[in-house]
Each structure stands twice: as structure tokens, then as C-alpha cells.
Amino acid sequence: MSRSENQPSIVWLRNDLRLSDNPALTAATSEDRPLVVVYIHDETGDGIRPLGSASKWWLHHSLTALDAALQKLGGQLTLSHGPATQVLPALVDELGATSVHWNRRYTAARDIDAGLKASLREQGLTVESHQGNLLNEPWHIRNGQGEPYKVFTPYWRAAQERPVRDALRAPTTTTLRWLAGSPASDDIAEWNLLPTRPDWAEGLRETWTPGEQGARNRLESFVTERLADYHRRDEPAVDATSGLSPHLRFGEISPTQIWQRLRGTGSTDVPNPARNNVAKFLSEIGWREFSTALLFDNPRLATDSYRPAYNAFPWGYTVDQIGGVDEPAGVSEVEAWRRGRTGIPLVDAGMRELWHTGTMHNRVRMVVASFLIKNLLIDWRAGEQWFWDTLVDADEASNPANWQWVAGSGADAAPYFRVFNPILQQKKFDPAGEYVARWIPELGTKNYPEPIVDLAETRREALEAYTAVKAAAASN
After folding, report:
1. What is the pLDDT of residues 383-405, one digit of tens each?
2. pLDDT tens digit string along 309-327?
3. Among candidates 302, 292, 295, 296, which has minimal Cα distance to 134?
4. Phi, psi of 473 (to 5 degrees)
5. pTM of the prediction?
């Protein structure tokens, strides 16, 4: 066997921590070269948004699960930390690699990928990026003028007209060749991804099983047990949602696999009562794709209002005045909101669910976001940053897109005059108070605080501010 046949192919994993339906892994395996699978923990590269605390917890366990799966196939996951622009070329040189494969990402960090692709190709390597994390690439879904869609419904209508490829099978021991003498790998414990003092992750451990197998199990339990109740997804006390968002965020399951299970070859045994809810659930996958397309065309979605007129909104407190996630800078309303001590039961229940589980029911997410933005008049970016730190499913596209939707500054945004009334929302969606009671056991006692604001008065103030912004935009 010639030396060239012994030169390895590198698979660079990012937000695609799975073996099944992994186009980059499949392509590298098909080259019949020794394989090296690497994950680079890059927190400083241009366009990189460092992970929040809850996401770091998930990443630790997801990488551990992936390494165990690779070891069962006779290989291992190579871990390295540092700027990818330095780490990946150094690994290529060390191993004498002849090809590199990765699945595309759509954030500002794609500039890192473009630079690496160009420089490595100049050195004679085969470097290929693949579509592994979306049903449709952002540039595939454009309107009649060739421009990005700004409204979800026509976007999703156009997206569904395109065929969805079949999901790819995971490699096996018979299809894989591993590089003899694996490269040195970091000890993941030294990355300090897990909380220690204090260890606040008990609720996360109780709630989640990160990793590809956990994702598969959750999809299957959703299809067979909860999809039939998905029409009740707005009721936070009802277990009717999929819980797949963190698995999708880290790529432990692909949207293609979900589509295939519900609309493709795997859909034959979807229970009849659940079939009526498939289209609505898949539209939520579509919203994720729409958000990614927004981020692709607007890389500063987490910091800049999609609608520039809203940059002039007269916030009571801006994100700069509030400070980072560790320090509310004396803004008592922000601290009360973060801790679930606002005196507004549905808001507080949601924020406590977030702290305990690293997630929050979607209907309640809208309510707590509306309360922060429109009742407290606090910059939506402050809420987006807090969710980024505390959500296990914090996604660079969906998180800011959803916050801007509530704020009215985003694409396809909620009308500025829509202010979620948390009292009415609770009466409508949690009428028996089951969800609220679950998270606020002291409700109705002297230990529960009085409301920190008057909902009617603050709604009026918010509408006045939004009306002034719209008037100023119209006059320009």
C-alpha cells in the first residue's frame, strides 16, 4: 500500500455530534483512507460566540457520548482547543492528511471555514463542506426577486416544494479504517465545561440525556407518546412537545432524520391520532431553518435590530447599562426576572423552569420575553444574553430571532402592539394552575412577592414608546 493511501482524512465536527446522517463523515469514509475525527473547542476565533454555561454542560456530555460511540467502532474522538485557524492546519501537518471534511455552519464563523478551505486547498488537500444541518441551504430559498424571505409562511411554502434527501446510515466497523496511532487528544475534564462551585446542574442531569442515542430515544418517544397531543403544545402543564431542540442544536440528530421519520420512509408506523399534528410540528423545524436563513444574511442578528428603526427605541435600561449575565448592575427588575421573583406567577414559573432544567416551554418563553421587553422596557438583548447563558438549546439563530420576534424588531415579527398579558395567558393555557404550582410552591403565601410592576400601566407605556418609534420611522 502506497504512502498516499495511508494519509488520513480528517472529519472536523462542530454542531453535528452524531454518526448517523452525517454527510461529512460519510464522504470521508467513502475515500477508504485512515480516518481521524476531531472536535476543536474554539472560543476566540473571529465570528465565534462562546458557549453559555448550560450549553457547556451539554457539550461535555455530548462529546463524551460521541467518543464512546466511536470507541465501539474501534476509533476515538480527538479533542483539541484553541483557534481553529491554527489547530486544524497544525493537525493536517502533523498527520500528513490528504483531505478534510466538515458540515457547513451558517453563522459569522463561516468566514473561518472559507479561509481554511482556501488555504488548505492551496496546499493540495481535498477540502469539502457538506449540507448536514439543514433541510435547505439558506441560498436555496429565495423569493421571486432572488432575495431572502422576510416572512415565514411564504418561506416555508417555498421550502416544502424542494425534495428532502434520504438520511444517511451510520458507518460500521466494516466501512471504517482508523489511523494507526491516534493523535494526541485533550482531556475533556481540563476544558472545565461542567459547573463545580456551585454545581447547579442537578436539574439538567434529571431532565436530559445528551448524545445521539438520547436524541433518538426522545424522537421515538415523542412520535409514539406525545405527538398525538401536540395540538395542546401551548399548555405548559401538558407534556406535548418534542424536547428535541437541544439535540438539534448540537446536531445529535438532523432535521433530515426527523423529516424522514414523520414524512419519509420511517413514517409508516406513525400512530393515526398523531398524523394530524405532523404538519404543524414540522413547521417548527421550518421556523428553525427560517431563523438560520435570517442569521446567514444578517450575521449580527444577536446585537443589531433586524428593523433598524427599532435601534431608536427608548429603553428604560439598555443591555450596556445592565451588564453581563453575572452582574445585573443593580437593576432590581432584571434580577427579579432572572430569579423568578417578579410576583407574576407565569413569568416566575417559566424562569424557574429555565434555571432548573435549562429549557422553558415555548409559550412561556414568549410571555417572559414580552414581560421583560414590554412591561419592564428592558433591552431585548439583555434577555437574549441571559437565555444564551442558561438554555441548553441556545442556538445562534433561533435565540436572537425569537427575541426579536417578541420585541417587534425582527423579521415576521409580532405586531408592536401585541403585549402578552401573563395573567390572561395563564388563565387560557394553565387554567388549573398546574404548571405554576409545579414551579412556585410558595404561591399564595407571604413568601411570594407582590408584583414588581403594574401590568396595565406598563403596557400603556410600552405602546406609547413603540408608537413614537413607528412615527419617527415613518417621517424619515
Report:
1. 999 999 999 999 999 999 999 99
2. 898 899 988 888 877 777 6
3. 292
4. -65, -40
5. 0.96
**159, HSE (Cβ side, Cα atoms, 13 Å):** 25
Residue 81 backbone phi and psi in degrees, to 5: -125, 155
Q: What is the rounded radius of gyration, in angstroms, for the C-alpha atoms of the chain?
A: 23
**CA–CA distance, 329 with 341 (Å, rounded to integer):** 17
Alpha-carbon distance values, 368 to 261, 401, 451 (Å): 33, 15, 14
The Cα 194–Cα 196 span in angstroms is 6
Cβ(148)–Cβ(138) under 8 Å?
A: yes
Are the C-beta atoms of 453 and 423 separated by less than 8 Å? Answer: no
In the chain, the amino acid numbered 307 is: R
- Domains of the chain with bracketed CATH: 1-132 (3.40.50.620), 197-297 (1.25.40.80), 308-471 (1.10.579.10)
Q: Which residues, other chains included, contact 31 with Cβ-Cβ below 8 Å and sequence gap of 6+?
A: 9, 99
CA geometry: angle 37, 40, 44, nearest 5 deg: 165
Only one residue has cell 424522537, namely 219
Classified as helix, coil or strand, 230 is helix
Residue 40 bridge partners (DSSP): 80
Can you tell me the distance from the alpha carbon of 373 to that of 434, in angstroms, rounded to the nearest whole number? 26
CA 422 to chain centre: 25
